[in-house]
Design brief:
- InterPro entries: AB_hydrolase, AB_hydrolase_1, AB_hydrolase_fold.
- This is Alpha/beta hydrolase.
- The protein is about 40% helix and about 15% strand.
- It has about 290 residues and is an alpha/beta fold.
- It has one domain: Rossmann fold.
- It has an 8-stranded mixed sheet with strand order 1-2-4-3-5-6-7-8, sandwiched between helices.
- The chain is globular, with a radius of gyration of 17 Å.
Length: about 290
Amino acid sequence: MKTSNAQSGNYTYATVPTQFVEANGIKIAYRSYGKEGDIPVIYFNHLTANLDNCDPRIMDAIAAHRQIISFDYRGVGSSTGKQGTSIPDMAKDAIAFIHALGYKQVDVVAFSMGGFITQELLLVEPQLVRKVILAGTGPRGGQGVSDVVGLTYKDIFKGLFTFRDPKFYLFFTQNKIGKDAARDFLKRLKERTENRDKKVKISVLKSQLKAIAAWGHDQPADLSVFKLPVFIANGDNDRMVPTPNSYDMAKRFPNAQIKIYDNSCHGGIFQYHEEFVKSALTFLNK
């Protein structure tokens, strides 16, 4: 039976408390708020992301209509345990987390590595997900997925030399529009000033990149077996998970729709957050 996990009160993502639940032998940190219903929206985050790396504009806009839940992967932020060494292992943790909260079915919004994890979850327990949004992501064995490792390290070093968050380079185009969107996005991530999550360790980055590299070299999965509605979103110039992967997934999922945002990169949904949220809510609530 489902237990109530949403925080009552007029919370925003900047103020909602962090909670914990035991699942798969670890203590998972999560934040849950919004309009409660039978089917919550679970947000699967990106490489090296803790709870503070969710875009408040997207989270709050969804929370106005649906209960939304974000969580830290094993060994990340405030979650305990040793960082998962493979994408399928992370999917098993996610399944255990959803069951620990008492849900039999959820909707998913997954960004980047979160999309890899979600696809592995579908292979194990497809009936757990009713609808899925896959943003800035690609399929197992997809074009350039294994190249994320080198690109990430390159832009991390670039960030160190320029005193910028690597997401400035990894998520956004380097023209004026992209740079302005990057500054706005990174500013939004700092809106939560109290009870912030624990910083992510370098060891987590290494483990997750290793897992992504292995997954990117693995054999493609048969996505045609999944009949659930899928909404795919990306920027038209994604360098991290190249945009052709989005078109590839849209062809391989039998019930998919796709939206590609102009003049944007990996973080297209953050650059166009207002447009994305309208499409996402229409898709999720239809």
